[in-house]
Amino acid sequence: MTAPNAQPYWDALRGVADPEIPVVNIVEMGMVRGVDISEQGVRVRFTPTFSGCPALHVIRQGITDALAAAGADTVTVENVFSPPWTTDDITPEARAKLETYGIAPPAPNGESSLFMTLEPEAVRCPRCGSFDTRMTASFGSALCKRMYVCQACREPFEGMKSV
Amino acid sequence: MTESALTQPTPAFTASVKSALIARLTALADDEITLSHRVAEWTGHAPLLEEDIALANIAQDELGHATLWLGLRATLDGSNADTLAYHRDPAEFRNAPLTELPKGDWAVTMVRQYLFDAWEVLWLDSARQSSYTPLAEAAAQALREEKFHLQHTALWVERLALGTPESTRRTQAALNQLWAYALGLFDPLPAEADALGAGLLPDVTALQTRWLGLVRGHLEGVGLSIPAASPLPYSRHQHTEHLAPLLADFQRVAREFPESQVW
């Protein structure tokens, strides 16, 4: 493993925000699978979230810039598709940040049925904490989100899809 | 579509298997490109704001899937996704004619998307078992996104079929128009047999049986009648008159400004 000297690079990657949800970084969102250092430079194994996410370009550039600033001469960002990214990879700290930011964190995914139309778990309102919520649109402002309304405090809010 | 380079080592395939894989990946990508363009034509025009956003999301996902397929193709033949998407002529596109038909009314858009999503979900579900690992991984990724589409469009078909007499009439008319085209999704590609025998690609004939079971159950369950289908004069190699204008629109900026990197 690369334990002795990869730490500064991991720290630098924690400074790369998700462009669409800037309160969380790409490490705590589970998008970074590994950092390898060799004579060829620093290689980051990166797992895309949604395949059509327009933020992916920005994130890859952010990785390259952050590692260059941390002293890497050559940076390679490699796509890793296996295992696929899942919202279960988001850390508890990032889930708490999402909720504070007003986005309901995703319910555990597990291996859900292909044709299931109901949420596996009730979604909690990030403003008042009530579980008395209703999905109002199955798609939202970004590929990873959908829309809800809280029937207790009446506020609309966004929630992350569970994938 | 440039940042799709996959780095998995590409196994050595025989020439016939390789060309079958390239043909299938191209057909998948062309379906996604043309359908996403049709869906995106609703942007700013959908009947509800939430649906405007939903269709923009779906179009974006489908284009993301096209990026996956063309990225895989690039590892097989060194092709470039942008060149394939923006600089091929209509006769070179291998999409099913279903995906190039005009967007029509809301019922046509939703019924087509439902029929397509059901095909795509089943194809991806089967492709997860492919012995061609990069394909199995890409299928697993796309399937996680695609199932949201199927859930959404299945509900819309139900809502429209059971809504008002007018919505029922339009939904049945959409199904009558689209059914034979949807069956065209399952036409085997020439020379797919070798790749199929090697466990690399899903068997589309077997998928059609699963698909018929799924969509018949849903459509008849909401009171729609499955029309009789007669063979069409169109195929992935023989397009309708609607593809050329679609591509002229889709490819216009790239062809007018071939030097541009971002638009």
Commentary on this structure:
Chain A is α/β, with parallel strands linked by helices and 163 residues long. Chain A folds into 2 domains: 3-79, GMP Synthetase, Chain A, domain 3, CATH 3.30.300.130; 101-160, no CATH class. Chain A has helices at residues 3-13, 55-69, 92-101; strands at 17-18, 21-25, 32-38, 41-46, 75-79, 103-104, 133-137, 145-150, 156-160. In chain A, the strands form 3 sheets. Chain A has a 4-stranded mixed sheet with strand order 6-9-8-7. A 3-stranded mixed sheet of chain A has the order 3-4-5, with helices on one face. Chain A has a two-stranded antiparallel sheet with strand order 1-2. In chain A, strand 3 and strand 4 form a beta hairpin. Chain A is elongated and about 55 Å long. The model of chain A has no long low-confidence stretch (mean pLDDT 88). Chain B has 263 residues and is an all-alpha fold. Chain B has one domain: Ferritin, CATH 1.20.1260. Helices cover 66% and strands 0% of the residues of chain B. Chain B has helices spanning 15-40, 49-77, 81-87, 97-100, 106-127, 133-161, 165-183, 193-197, 204-221, 243-256. The termini of chain B are close together. The A-B interface holds A 48, 50-54, 56-57, 60, 78-79, 81-86, 114-117, 136-141, 143, 147, 161, 163 and B 3-7, 50, 53-54, 56-58, 60-65, 67-68, 121, 125, 133-134, 137-138, 140-145, 147-148, 150-152, 154-155. Chain A: Residues 115-161 form the PaaD zinc beta ribbon domain. Chain A: Residues 10-77 form the MIP18 family-like domain.
> What number of domains of chain A?
2
- Mind telling me which CATH architecture of the largest domain in chain A this is? 2-Layer Sandwich
Q: Give, in order, the helices and strands of chain A.
A: HEEEEHEHEEEE
Walk across the major sheet of chain A and give the strand order. 6-9-8-7
CATH topology of chain B: Ferritin
Q: What share of the residues of chain B lie within helices?
A: 55-70%
Within CATH, the superfamily of chain B carries the name Ferritin, core subunit, four-helix bundle
CATH class of the largest domain in chain A: Alpha Beta
Largest interface, chains and sizes: A-B, 31 and 38 residues
Strand content of chain A: 25-35%
What string, H for helix and E for strand, traces the elements of chain B in order?
Answer: HHHHHHHHHH
Report the uncertain regions of chain A.
none
* CATH level-four homologous superfamily name of the largest domain in chain A: Fe-S cluster assembly (FSCA)
